[in-house]
Amino acid sequence: MKRLLSIIASAALIFTSAPAMTSFAEDKTNDLKLHFKIENGEACLTGEWSDNVTELVIPETYEGKPVTSIDEKAFTGNENIVSCVIPDTVKSVGDLAFAACPNLKSISIGSGFSSLGNLSFANCNNLTSITVSKDNPDFTSINSCLYNKKGDTLRLYAGGSKAVVSDNTKTIGKWAFFERSDITSVTIPSSVTAIEDSVFSGCLSLKEITIPDSVTKLGKYCFMSCRALQSVSLGKSVTEIPEECFYCCTALNNISLSDNIKSIGDRAFYCCEDISGIYIPAAVKSIGEDAVGKKYISMGSYSIKIPNFQIKGEKGSAAEKYAFDQNISFLTNDSQGDVNGDGKVDSVDASAVLAEYALLSAGKKGKLTEKQSKAADWNSDGNIDSVDASAILAEYARVQTL
Fold it and tell me: Does 24 have pLDDT greater than 70?
């Protein structure tokens, strides 16, 4: 949890103090006072001293020196900037330079820009347009988004709440959608093979995601704190659920792991409290610390088991060992009592047994399948009756005490 807070806070919090200033220049055109520092014959823009600027046009020179960089946190949390023009002389934009600028809509990037800092434009929810000089050798703009010059790596998304990644994209780069809390859906084309670290972290309105079969790599913290995310469809080429991939996706209730998954990283599904159970295939050979079925208790600063959580898997599997080590209820794939096959034994299963018993007692045909009937016959006596229902309820009560 401490890691989650530090990552989210670094991008979203509005900083209350301005960076240190060494000098300033006044832009007569926009009536904007800009602060610079000069080092090694070059000027670095460190911030502004006006509280009403909407159109930020950065000059190419200051006191005869070329403006070549924008300092880290230079405009973090600025609520007034709507557009920003970065001239050809600027080579780099520092970490968090424009993070949490809620009204920033457009960015124009010059030909000299070559280095994008960490989270430079994170949490800019109204950013809809990025243009890049055609003479820039490192970056380009595709569908108003920032791409590498080759056009196969998305570096920064700009657009509406229903995001569509452009065709021919191979990699969705680190932090490309970081803290875009307005986004409700993302369409990923089959050209994408890699989704890097923290790409969708903090996308608070994202409700579902489909990872195409073409994707072979998911990055760490990829969907961290996507608190509205309910459903995830993982493509068959994904073999690893990395560290903290779905950390604190508190609404997540529907996820299916294919037989292609080989490992689940530390805290991959930590604090996913709406998941009451999960089937972990035998192909999974490695399950990290607190990977599933655990949550954080802030008052005690420690982890506990999610109440009533159950793991379903195969005998002798990594899933069974993890469940035993974490004191989590474990059911085999053919576990008796789990009549509806949802990975847990509870009152719903007991009710299904009683309903089947009532039909059979009345001389009617039962509704359960052969597999369900086997699960319903708790004592394996060949009959489905109230004895089985009582035993299932007793098992359900036992699980509550774990």
Answer: no
Q: Which residues, at least 6 apart from 395, have a Cβ–Cβ distance to it below 8 Å?
A: 337, 345, 378
Contact (CB, 8 A) for 232 and 209: yes
Shared domain for 130 and 158, answered yes or no, is yes
Q: In this structure, what token pair is assigned to residue 371? A: 């597999």
* 339 occurs within a structural domain: no
SS3 360: helix
- Overall domain count for the chain: 2
Question: Quick one: CA dihedral 228, 230, 231, 234, positive or negative?
Answer: positive
Asked whether residue 91 is assigned to any structural domain, the reply reads: yes
Q: Do 132 and 116 touch, CB atoms closer than 8 A?
A: no
User: Residue 92: which residues within 8 A CB-CB, separation 6 or more?
Assistant: 68, 69, 70, 113, 114, 115, 116, 117
Q: What residues contact residue 301 under an 8 Å CB cut-off, 6+ apart? A: none
Tens of pLDDT along 82-126? Answer: 999 999 999 999 999 999 999 999 999 999 999 999 999 999 999
pLDDT digits (tens, 9 = 90+) for 143-179: 999 999 999 999 999 999 999 999 999 999 999 999 9
Cα distance between residue 304 and residue 154, in whole Å: 38
